[in-house]
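Re: that backbone. Tokens:
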């Protein structure tokens, strides 16, 4: 599953098809969803990879198959 951790203004400018929006700002507030699949990888992306790494550190305890993509949105689209 692809997860976009960019903020809403960035998401509205475009995102990967089929991606779920889960802004890093929400994760930092402890708003970690419980409905994401735990039996498949979660691929996190942002603009350049930095926020995806932070998001991974916040999600890894709940979702063991988290991957922070080093490529940013512009490289992925």
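Recovered sequence:
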């Amino acid at each position: 599953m692809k997860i976009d951790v960019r903020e809403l203004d960035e998401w509205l400018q475009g995102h990967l098809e089929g991606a779920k929006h889960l802004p890093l700002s929400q994760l930092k507030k402890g708003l970690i969803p419980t409905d994401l699949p735990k039996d498949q990888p979660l691929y996190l992306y942002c603009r350049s990879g930095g926020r995806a790494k932070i998001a991974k550190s916040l999600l890894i305890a709940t979702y063991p198959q988290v991957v922070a993509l080093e490529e940013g949105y512009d490289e992925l689209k």
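Helices lie at 8-13, 24-28, 50-59, 73-76. The domain at 2-36+45-76 is CATH 3.40.250.10 (Oxidized Rhodanese; domain 1).
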